[in-house]
Design goal:
single chain; 59 residues; elongated
Length: 59
């Protein structure tokens, strides 16, 4: 609101960010693989807990 009050036009960036998420560089794909492995390792440390319970206890 402060920007609009100062006369600056504010637009919704969603269309541009949605489009940019559709294309992944090889580096981004590799990071997703690494992050997935980290998440799997974290979840495996909580044997017996349901997915939602594990994430709920971590947040």
């Amino acid at each position: 609101m402060a920007l609009q009050n100062a006369g600056i036009t504010v637009t919704d960036p969603s269309p541009a960010t949605v489009d940019s998420r559709e294309v992944k560089t090889p580096e981004e794909v590799q990071l997703m693989i690494v992050n997935g492995g980290a998440g799997d390792a974290m979840l495996s440390a909580f044997k017996g807990g349901r997915f939602g319970q594990v994430y709920g206890s971590l947040s």
